[in-house]
Amino acid sequence: MSTEGAGVLFLKPGQIVVSSHPLLVTTLLGSCVAVTMFCQRLKTGGICHAQLPTCREREAEGVTHPGRFMDSALREMLARLLERGALAGELEVKVFGGSDMFQGRGRGRAVGRQNAEMALAVLARESIKVLNQDLFGERGRKIIFHTHTGAVFLKRLNRSGVC
């Protein structure tokens, strides 16, 4: 797989990228979740890096920063891909992150678990099949997504305060 001529981008929390141009998108995940979507026919890929499962002001007309929230980030990324001519049934989808980086702090379900569960629930609601996933655990992840091939490379990090 050639990466010659591909641009490089570091995806920050709350960002969404959809590109038909070759990009190598790198991001670091802890409790955050990244979802990649790739359309082979169009050679177009998208990735989002969401920090929280859902916007508390759900009834609000428009979320100011849709990439921050898993539910709105997925809807936004999917809309961008469909606008470019992708069909939901042909998307190759992969989901990463959702670690419990601060195990034992606080009560209830950790935000990482909530982020991952929200991602899977939204994708299921949209009838989008997840091809691969690497979720939960106690370690952060570094991923590199190739927007022009759909390939994702994953490295598990030492326990630290990533994202």
TrEMBL record:
InterPro entries: CheD-like_sf, Chemorcpt_Glu_NH3ase_CheD, Cytotoxic_necrot_fac-like_cat. SUPFAM superfamilies: CNF1/YfiH-like putative cysteine hydrolases. It comes from Geomonas terrae. Its EC number is 3.5.1.44. GO terms for molecular function: protein-glutamine glutaminase activity. Belongs to the CheD family. It catalyses: L-glutaminyl-[protein] + H2O = L-glutamyl-[protein] + NH4(+). It is an enzyme of class 3 (hydrolase). The gene is cheD. This is Probable chemoreceptor glutamine deamidase CheD. GO terms for biological process: chemotaxis. Probably deamidates glutamine residues to glutamate on methyl-accepting chemotaxis receptors (MCPs), playing an important role in chemotaxis. It comes from the Bacteria.
